[in-house]
Amino acid sequence: MAAGEPVASAARPGRDLSPILTFRDGELFRDGAPHRVLSGSIHYFRVHPELWRDRLERLAALGLNTVDTYIAWNFHQRGQDAADFSGWRDVERFIELAGELGFDVIVRPGPYICAEWDNGGLPSWLTGVPGLRPRSSDAQYMAAVEEWFDELIPRLAALQASRGGPIVAVQLENEFGSYGDDSGYLSRLRDALVQRGVTELLYTADGPTELMLDGGTLPEVLATATFGSRAREAAELLRSRRDGEPFLCAEYWNGWFDHWGEHHHVREPRGSVGVIDEILEVGGSVSIYMAHGGTNFGLWSGANHDGRVLQPTVTSYDSDAPVSEHGDITEKGRMLRQRLEAFTGVVPPAVPEDRPVLAARRLFTTPAAALLPAMRAAGGDEASVSVSPASFESLGLDAGLVLYEATPILPNGASTLSIRGLHDRALVWVDGRFVGAVDTVSAAAGLELSGHGERVRLEVLVENQGRINYGPLLGQGKGILGAVQVDRRIVQGWRSRPIALAEWTSAELEAAVAGGEGVEGVEPGAAGFSTAVLEIDAAADTFLALPGFVKGFVWVNGFLLGRYWEIGPQVTLYVPSPVLRAGVNTVTVLELERSGEAIELREVPELGPAEEYIESFG
């Protein structure tokens, strides 16, 4: 087999359980033959399952011989009930499909994955346990990990190459050296994988610095690097530390993700592919992150924190990848295909045709329930009653909104309402009158109120904008984690109602839009629910824009596309064809601040003004 040639995942009857990928003297072998891993990252949880095959075929057209995917624990186990491996969560089917298309598969089961995914893939019901220390040898944490691995790892082990499946390697944790130095934790994870049947190649992945490699590697486990530039330097560093190991870039960042309020990050195609040239020239293997990024549907997008403010990630995970969010082979993808064909001498499969897109149109919206009364109704009659506001975690709520209510006395004249420990953004009403929005920066500064020495009905709607997925604040809680104050006096006696937007069924969404008995309709331009009707002859992809709207959530036929926000950079939300149907379709918008009069379907995506990504290991 020529280096880099696409490989089939055929069964190997009678073979022992030794790994198919091995190495010696700095060279990688597949089944005894010299080999280069030419991989692309794709996440089954970011691609509608009816499009899995389509996206994998497009990765094959790039000339890749391997695909890799993270496995997001919280995607399979949002609550503490049994893990779900059905439907969209059927990761075994995704892996099998990749094998059917001739790919080797690398799996990255974490349990922590980062991935700009909510909470780094860890369930919030776990990280919300008081005193628990994630990503460590902490007994509570490891007990939960091992229980999860009891469910997950045997499913993966059965799909290893030694058993006739496509899995050729398994990653141990993820960039742990950027987080901690508990080598005992890594050793326990390694043992947990091996004890549950993993026999293929194990590896760690860390940034190419002494600090990160010191904390994230284990003896006798292949050490790999993640980076976006300076491949020769990374290769030299790894080879100086791990004599005899092959050079593998486990994540080559050929693009980058976006935060709300920033620019859309891109990498110039020629320079981006040039780094892959450099990796190959120094004898390395590579996995392109992302080869196809997909979408943070629902409320799965994570967040970063810069030490001062939360940086929530946008709904799109296009990542300026060779295969775009909606499946087009980009200029970068075409250049990559040519480069890999020249390197391997193998002509990749033909590039699939672009997917059909609906014609552009404008859909006028119909106002429904107003925001505050709708949220009161959606929160139901049952509420947590406590002295202090309840956190999302204590309410058993992973994502969405919480409506808090108290009845403080406002002093006569002017006073200031402040919220300590707000995570992440709040809308505030006094006696049903909207008085302002606050976030993590402005909450402590407060809102100016005017009272008459009487009790008022104070209502605070708090939005979880995505859980932190990277760094020391991983696992941080959501909601009001401190105190609400009127001047220096703490407001006590709260009712807290969880509003689980991400878990609503179509029927629950329809009930929320209707608002319930006695719920007033929204006035044009006001915050709240609105709907639009789309009639089509056949389903196709489209891109939804919300001019005139400010911030909120969008559903199509009961499917939660994700968040939108006028601060950008993302302007359009990708609507994959499987969520549409021939005939009548319903678009539902929950606007938190100011509604527009119409939504637009566009024929091309608009992800915002572009900015070249610059790598940093700060």
From TrEMBL:
* The protein's Enzyme Commission number: 3.2.1.23
Domain of life, per lineage: Bacteria
List the top taxonomic levels of the source.
Bacteria, Bacillati, Actinomycetota, Actinomycetes, Micrococcales
Query: Which residues are responsible for catalysis?
Result: 175 (proton donor), 251 (nucleophile)
- One MF term in the entry's GO annotations: beta-galactosidase activity
**Could you tell me which residue ranges the Glycoside hydrolase 35 catalytic domain spans?**
28-341
Which family does the entry's similarity section mention? Belongs to the glycosyl hydrolase 35 family.
The UniProt keyword set, sorted, is:
Glycosidase, Hydrolase
Hydrolase listed as a keyword: yes
Protein name (database record): Beta-galactosidase
* GO biological process terms held by the UniProt record: carbohydrate metabolic process
- Catalytic reaction list: Hydrolysis of terminal non-reducing beta-D-galactose residues in beta-D-galactosides
Source organism per entry reads Agromyces fucosus
Q: What class of enzyme is it?
A: hydrolase
Q: Could you tell me which residue ranges the Beta-galactosidase 1-like first all-beta domain spans? A: 389-499
